[in-house]
Structure prediction request, 376 residues.
Amino acid sequence: MDGVLVWVDPIHQGKTRAALDPLLREIATKGPWVSAHPDVILKMGVKEVLYQTRHLGWGADTYRYDSAATFRAEFPPRLQTSGPRVLKQNRGNGGQGVWKVEALPDARVRVLHAQRGTLPEDIPFDDFFGRCEPYFGWGGCIIDQAFQPRLPEGMIRCYMSGTRVAGFGHQRIRALIPPPPEGPDSPEAQPGPRTMHGPDAAPFQALRRLMEDEWTPQMMKTLGIDEPSLPVIWDADFLYGPRDADGADTYVLCEINASSCFAIPDEAPAAIARTVKDRLLRALARSAVQFALSHVCRLITYPLAGFDGWARDDPVHARCGVVGWGRLGGQAVPAVDPDAVLHAHPDISADHPRLQGDTGAHAHAIVFDDLHTRRP
Prediction:
């Protein structure tokens, strides 16, 4: 097994990835490439990424609360002075643990949960604190962002495969927007369809350039993630921010999904396949280099051990020198190519030009290409 692709939500029907993630880490230590690796998810696929990357162009007015005590002390005065805020538990999906909060008189707040079918509630601050305290358990913190007034204009989902844009989705969402008079379960309260677009869609080319040329490389540097570790499919969700001085749109990151990214645009599977192929071939190439280096090390260390053996009159190490010089001599004038590997291609016809007239097994130096994608 060369790789493992995993799509599992962080929270589903009350269950978390607490048992799955250690298993995936163990698999990765044994050699297979895992995407998305749990440690990468913990860096980029949690709400804390909004705080850690707030200095990037996609950032907004963002704070982090690491404990219930800090939350109780710092959030109320910030809410009073900054206007409506959006609170997000660190790990979650489907609107779980995401709240719009507005200050009311007499130590009360108006809250609206992002999950479908919810209504605004006016409750005491203390009651709301009690609802949020569990978020400091498994998730570890609460992220606090300014509410974006252009929310009703919709959300743009930018689908990424590694460092390249694989497509876009645009959707008119209803989360954190009070339901219409018909009620939270009425057709008028439901989100609009997500319209999928390919990576070349004209309305999103400014965002594409920002993601590929600036924001993704900056995120990788900030979080300490190298390119081969980025998930083969992930997405960044953006709301429209304030228009700039020229009237152009700006974008505010509200979430990155790395655990389970689906549905995806029609163009995305081909992008995923290209990324997977590229990474597996690179991993195989690294393996070949390591294999070659190990042989070079033997060719160097055996003669050195022999010199040491002769100098100390140690017959065991002296024999190593004989073997080492024999290998060096064999490398210089080989009777048989030591790197030639006997193998077969049962899945291609005998008259294939790459077989060069061979029938059945043949031998040549190790290469990695379309016919040789793994070590024989």
